[in-house]
């Protein structure tokens, strides 16, 4: 069974631009969560989707948004990028919000 | 005060030592997770437990629901166990996952 995949793996953007990251969960998994990881802050929860509905949201500004499609694939969008948005963005999928399986992450650098 | 507290933050030990990492939480939970992240590597789920004890190889995880406390033990530690170990709890009120700050473990040969 294929694992969680995230695209792209690396991305360089300029301040003010927007970015869309993609996550494909393990086949059969309907729950997808997104996290931001920075060296100083550790893992910070962004949001969690289950069956196309956002179930939980972390304490991030409205510039961070996401959605989940009917095939459980999920996208995360960050608008008006700031330097502080440079981080590793991780996606995790699970079966009915159980054990979390993480993807390799997307490394975003904002210049 | 954070809802999930891990201790210690950093731990350095010699190969072969018995390792214990602790996780305390202050909310009602439906499950607790232990995960491992190697330097530059991805995050791997080690255990998900809601009661008692689980064992996988040299790793043992225990949870005491009444005391709101869990421990992760590593027996016969090895340098390849060097990683960050993260505890997370699934709240029973809204099912949100709350993450601990992680424990950085270094095992010296």
Describe the model:
- The complex is a heterodimer of chains A (111) and B (109).
- Chain A is mainly beta.
- Chain A is built from no helices and 11 strands.
- In chain A, strands 2, 4, 5, 6, 9, 10 and 11 form a 7-stranded mixed sheet that branches.
- In chain A, strand 9 and strand 10 form a beta hairpin.
- Chain A is globular, with a radius of gyration of 13 Å.
- The termini of chain A are far apart.
- The model of chain A has no long low-confidence stretch (mean pLDDT 93).
- In chain B, 33% of the residues are buried.
- Chain B is mostly beta strands.
- The mean pLDDT of chain B is 94.
- In chain B, strands 2, 4, 5, 9, 10 and 11 form a 6-stranded mixed sheet that branches. Chain B has a 5-stranded antiparallel sheet with strand order 1-3-8-7-6, with no helix packed on it.
- In chain B, strand 7 and strand 8 form a beta hairpin.
- Classes of the chains: A mainly beta (111), B mainly beta (109).
- Chains A and B meet through strand 5 and strand 10 of A and strand 4, strand 5, strand 9 and strand 10 of B.
Topology:
The complex is a heterodimer of chains A (111) and B (109).
Chain A: E1 5-7, E2 10-13, E3 19-24, E4 31-38, E5 42-50, E6 53-57, E7 64-68, E8 74-78, E9 87-94, E10 101-102, E11 106-110
Parallel strand pairs in A: 2-11
Antiparallel strand pairs in A: 1-3, 3-8, 4-5, 4-9, 5-6, 7-8, 9-10, 9-11
Chain B: E1 4-7, E2 10-14, E3 19-25, E4 29-37, E5 43-49, E6 52-56, E7 59-64, E8 69-74, E9 83-91, E10 97-99, E11 103-108
Parallel strand pairs in B: 2-11
Antiparallel strand pairs in B: 1-3, 3-8, 4-5, 4-9, 6-7, 7-8, 9-10, 9-11
């Amino acid at each position: 069974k294929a694992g969680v995949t995230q695209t792209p793996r690396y991305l360089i953007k300029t301040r003010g631009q927007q970015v869309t990251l993609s996550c494909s969960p393990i086949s059969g998994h309907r729950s997808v969560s997104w996290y931001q990881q920075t060296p100083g802050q550790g893992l910070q929860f962004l949001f969690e989707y289950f069956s196309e509905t956002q179930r939980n949201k972390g304490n991030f500004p409205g510039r961070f948004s996401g959605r989940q499609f009917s095939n459980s694939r999920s996208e995360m969008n960050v608008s008006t990028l700031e330097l502080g948005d440079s981080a590793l963005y991780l996606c995790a999928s699970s079966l009915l919000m159980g054990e979390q399986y993480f993807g390799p992450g997307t490394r975003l650098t904002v210049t | 005060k954070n809802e999930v507290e891990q201790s210690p933050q950093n731990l350095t030990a010699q190969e072969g030592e018995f390792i214990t990492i602790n996780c305390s939480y202050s909310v009602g939970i439906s499950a607790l997770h232990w995960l491992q992240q190697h330097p530059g590597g991805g995050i791997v789920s080690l255990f998900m437990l809601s009661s008692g004890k689980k064992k996988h190889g040299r790793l043992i995880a225990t949870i005491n629901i009444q005391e709101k406390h869990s421990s992760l033990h590593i027996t016969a530690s090895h340098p390849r166990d060097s990683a960050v170990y993260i505890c997370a709890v699934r709240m029973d009120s809204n099912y949100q996952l709350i993450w601990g700050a992680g424990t950085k473990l270094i095992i010296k040969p």
